[in-house]
Specification:
This protein is an alpha+beta fold. It has 11 helices and 14 strands. Helix 5 runs antiparallel to helix 8, helix 9 runs antiparallel to helix 10 and helix 10 packs antiparallel against helix 11. It binds flavin-adenine dinucleotide.
Length: 289
């Protein structure tokens, strides 16, 4: 694709980047770590706008949650003390599985979401954490729930906009929380055949009062398993309940067969990984299984 590039821009501020994006229009493309863009060979792109000098590489935690700048690398997420302690460290764990060390030193958090791969490893975790995305163009800035951000494989709702920041709101208060991220790939550094993130909160009697389950690589976009979440809510957490939730997850996913795995295998493994994730969450939340 780089044979066809006429201009490579390196703006120094968000404002400059947004004006450039307006100027280059549909023939322009944002580039951050370039780990996805180089493999896509999109020959219609004439202008690249590099966003790695805009000051968007940061992690800021406070009592209201956490903000992650778009060009924060996977390596930075993996090693950030804020991210390692947030929600049992599941975002740090997901970031640490995004390819090789070399890849993680370049790959950005914003790029992982904006590329809209159904298998993006941070997406399932960020769905579980109810993340929101701040996006901007030269005229306005808006906030979108991550659940509404992906429109299909490699399609988002972005309209020539810059993804500036990922916001993770405060976690449910009151303790008795548990978290898990599970990834199945062909090797340690491969992309996911299936990934599952989960979060549970139990009350003092072991009943589930808050539940999130999200999966990647088993549908056109990363998805929430809402029926399985509903099945858990208000019920006492035991092995039978978690097995039924895993079965519900298998019904909710919509995988395809490709060179990496068959749809049947992905569906089966969605159930296995979901049960494994829920057990890990339940143990942390103090439930007796
Ligand atoms: C060898 C290898 C292994 C990989 N393994 C994994 C893996 O295990 N798990 C995984 O999830 N991914 C994996 N990936 C994919 C990739 O590394 C990630 O998706 C990465 O986070 C993409 O970020 P980037 O900064 O490199 O994006 P880029 O390649 O720079 O951009 C990707 C797309 O997003 C757009 N974009 C980037 N940033 C923004 C922004 N802030 N606002 C709007 N649009 C933007 C670009 O225009 C482009 O369309 C792998 C890639 C490679 C090459």
């Amino acid at each position: 694709m780089f044979d066809h590039i006429e201009q490579f821009y390196r703006p120094a501020t968000v404002r400059e980047a947004l004006l450039l994006l307006r100027k280059v229009g549909k023939r322009g493309r944002i580039v951050a770590g370039a780990t996805d863009i180089v493999t896509q060979a999109d020959r219609s792109t004439r202008f690249l706008v590099d966003i790695t000098r805009l000051g968007l590489a940061y992690v800021r935690g406070n009592s209201r949650g956490c903000a992650i700048g778009a060009t924060t690398t996977m390596a930075a997420l993996e090693h950030s003390s804020v991210i390692r302690t947030l929600a049992g460290g599941i975002l740090a764990k997901a970031a640490s599985t995004c390819g090789s060390i070399q890849n993680r030193n370049m790959a950005t958090a914003g790029g992982n979401l904006a590329n809209a791969s159904p298998a993006a490893d941070t997406a399932a975790v960020l769905l579980v954490l109810d993340a929101q995305i701040v996006v901007a163009n030269s005229r306005r800035k808006r906030k979108i729930a991550l659940a509404e951000f992906c429109a299909g494989p490699h399609r988002t709702v972005l309209q020539g906009e810059l993804l500036e920041e990922i916001i993770i709101p405060a976690l449910p208060g009151g303790g008795r929380l548990g978290w898990s991220f599970q990834k199945l790939g062909r090797t340690e550094t491969d992309i996911s055949l299936v990934n599952v993130a989960a979060g549970l909160q139990a009350d003092a009697h072991g009943r589930i009062k808050w539940a999130r389950i999200a999966l990647g690589a088993v549908g056109p976009t990363p998805l929430r398993a809402r029926n399985a979440e509903d099945l858990l809510l208000g019920n006492t957490c035991d092995e039978d309940l978690l097995t039924r939730a895993g079965q519900e997850v298998m019904r909710e996913v919509n995988p395809i067969s490709d060179t990496r795995a068959s749809a049947e295998y992905r569906r089966e493994m969605s159930g296995v990984l979901a049960r494994r994730a829920l057990r890990e969450c339940a143990a942390q939340a103090g439930c007796k299984l």
